Every structure is written in structure tokens, then in C-alpha cells.
Amino acid sequence: MEKSKGGGKERKREEWVLLSGCPISTGPTS
């Protein structure tokens, strides 16, 4: 679980880019 901490964050951002189609710098704007 701790190993997914680093990769998990980047993965979530990549998913946001694919779902929202926004740049990683923006990230989730909720």
C-alpha cells in the first residue's frame, strides 16, 4: 500500500487528464 503512494498520486493525476482532459498542472478542480 505504501508503494502505491508515489505511483498512486501520479496515476490519479493521469486519470484526471484522461477523464477531464485537463493538464496535470491543473489536476482535479472540485
| Global morphology | flat
Give the low-pLDDT segments.
none
Order of helices and strands: H
Please bin the fraction of helical residues. Answer: 55-70%
Radius of gyration: 10 Å
Mean pLDDT: 62
Percent strand: under 5%
Helix count, DSSP H or I runs of 4 or more residues? 1
What class, by secondary structure content? mainly alpha
| Count of distinct strands | 0
How can the largest sheet be summarized? none
Cα end-to-end separation = 25 Å
Secondary structure topology:
Elements: H1 3-20
Task: Please summarize what this structure is.
The chain has 30 residues and is mainly alpha-helical. It is built from 1 helix and no strands.
Which labels suit this protein?
1 helix, mainly alpha, 60% helix, flat
Q: How would you describe this structure to a colleague?
A:
This protein has one helix spanning 3-20. The chain is mainly α.
